[in-house]
Amino acid sequence: MALNASKNITEGQNGLPSANYKIVSDELLAVVSVVMKSAMYDGISGFGLLTNAACLKVFWTMGFKNNINVSFFAITIADMGCLLSLLWMGICYNPLFADSNITIDSRSVQYLTGGWPKFYFTRVSGMITAYLTFERYLSMTIPLKVKLLLTPRRVTAILVTLYIFTALCVVPIYVPARFTWKWFPSKNMSLISTEFVASKGTINIISNSLNVAFYNGSFVIVVICTAVLILKLDESHAWKKKSTLRSDRQEVSKETRASRRVVFVALLYIVCNLPGSLSCFCMVAFPEFNAGESQQNLFFFYAAFVHIIEAINASCNIFIYQKTSKKFSHAFLQTFTHRPNNCKTKEVKLKYAGRWPVPLKLSIRWN
Predict the structure, then answer these.
(1) Which residue of 75, 144, 208, 331 has the lowest C-beta tally within 10 Å?
(2) 37: three-class secondary structure by DSSP
(3) Among 130, 127, 123, 122, which Cα is nearest to 45's?
(4) Residues 6 or more apart from 131 whose CB is under 8 A from it?
(5) Extended beta strands in 60-141, E state
């Protein structure tokens, strides 16, 4: 990170440098806007939209008789909304678009049309992940009761409620905002821009409170439930070794595979959302670290990094599904390679003592 060197730096509020010193220079921020906010936003988002579209198709093919498929389908929809919003943000930051003869101030308009929609879908994805880890914990602890209580229809109702509840909590940020014509002397023309009726301080309090409540609330739940799930997986693995009943071992293996898949998804979420969770505390602890404040360049730089990490999280779940779910892999092959459903494959091991030092595997295929 390029820093502005200065020997005489006075400290501002909470120990941060004063307003006459910028940790991230304007020149560096201009480079970041082109490289990270334009190229990387659109590149990662485009890739993620393809992977999530494939996931939606596969889950639709698999059906929704299984609760975990319903939850993963809901997460995929939220991830697609997040990536679409980020794609639009990248377009708005692109100089070829922003500095063209369009009648909107794209960098200002994207705050309401891209930034907050992405905030909404990211929080929905986090809350569904928190619910999913908690539901998996209950399935490992009281599996019979969970199967009776959490039917696919009830799970769908819970997920729809999470979508609606999160949307209602994001609505207040749009109440004091509006689009209006604003004169730009540099372009010698009026452009549609974003204007806030309420004071900036009130808006910052609302946005920071929502950030802390949703981002960190769901993040903490995911961390706790993931840790407990890992412990439960270890216990079930030890119990499986001691069990003598084949049916019990098969049932435990089925629940274990589903829980392991959820654990990997949750771990990816934790790693990719930790920087964003830390930024929420920084915004509260250091008021200078915010848009429109003395260290807004540092805030924009870090926000771009957080957006990219979150986009990676929203784009890579398909690889976890492929590695941890045989049903997903088979459905993926059937969907995108047009493999017939009545075609099955079976592996038979033939061992010849004294002839083959390694067991020979023959693949037998029939219709």
Answers:
(1) 144
(2) helix
(3) 122
(4) 71, 158, 159, 162
(5) none
Please identify which residue in the block is written with the tokens 């198709």. 57
Element (H or E) spanning 296, and its range? helix 296-315
Could you give the CA distance from residue 152 to residue 164 in angstroms, rounded to a whole number?
A: 18
Closest CA to 123 of 88, 79, 90, 87: 79
pLDDT value at residue 345: 41
Contacts (Cβ under 8 Å, ≥6 apart) of 238: none
Rounded Cα distance, 125 and 66, in Å: 19
- Name 71's Cβ contacts closer than 8 Å, sequence gap at least 6: 128, 131, 132, 135, 155, 159
Is the pTM here over 0.90, yes or no? no
Q: Which residue has the tokens 């992405």?
A: 118
Tokens of 33: 């806007």
218 token code pair: 């769901």
Q: What is the DSSP letter of 17?
A: B
* Cα angle, residue 285 at apex, residues 279 and 291 outer, rounded to 5°: 60
Residue reference for tokens 């693949």:
363
CA distance 354 to 122: 59
What is the predicted pLDDT for the residue at 78? 95
The overall average pLDDT reported for the chain is 78
C-alpha span between 259 and 263 (Å, rounded): 6
User: C-alpha dihedral over 263, 269, 270, 274, to 10 degrees?
Assistant: 180
Per-residue pLDDT for 367 more than 80?
no
Token pair 């452009």 is at which residue?
Answer: 191
